[in-house]
Amino acid sequence: MGVGGRDNETITKVFELSEEQRVNLKNWSAELKVRNDILKDKAKFLMKKNEESSPEVLLKVSKEYATIMDSMKQNVRMIDQRLLNSFNDVQYDRYLKLCRQLTLRPIHINRSVDEN
Predict the structure, then answer these.
(1) Which of 64, 107, 116 is nearest to 86 (CA)?
(2) CB-side neighbour CA atoms (13 Å) of 95
(3) What residues contact 109, with CB distance under 8 A and at least 6 apart?
(4) What is the pLDDT of residues 31-49, one digit of tens each?
(5) Packing angle between helix 55-86 and helix 19-49, nearest 10 degrees?
(6) Is residue 74 pLDDT above 60, yes or no?
(7) Is pLDDT above 80 for 67?
(8) Three-state secondary structure string covering the chain
């Protein structure tokens, strides 16, 4: 979906978000930024601390770095799922249709459960 990126305005327009959804999108975007900024700082520190390390150490560092990047991706998916869970049926159907048109794999959510 791209929550937290420069596409928030596009998301708002394409899915015709309600005022409550817009507020949530803004808050979730801020949360994602904080979460991922912490991980980015951790990754920078890891790289700086090991910039002159041996190949063996660098291999270990690369695995730690990959774990940090995976965590960032998981944060994005979590926030995208929150937004999708807030969608009404029309908005979610529009999302599925766009995914099909763009040959993207959609994030499926359980539409039978109302979390509100």
Answers:
(1) 116
(2) 24
(3) 81, 84, 85, 92
(4) 999 999 999 999 999 999 9
(5) 180
(6) yes
(7) yes
(8) CCCCCCCHHHHHHHCCCCHHHHHHHHHHHHHHHHHHHHHHHHHHHHHHHCCCCCHHHHHHHHHHHHHHHHHHHHHHHHHHHHHHHHCCHHHHHHHHHHHHHCCCCCCCCCCCCCCC
pLDDT for the residue 114 = 53
CB 1 within 8 Å of CB 28: no
- Provide the token pair at 95: 């999302």
User: Hey, what are 59's tokens?
Assistant: 């291999």
- Cβ proximity of 18 and 77 under 8 Å: no
The structure's pTM equals: 0.78
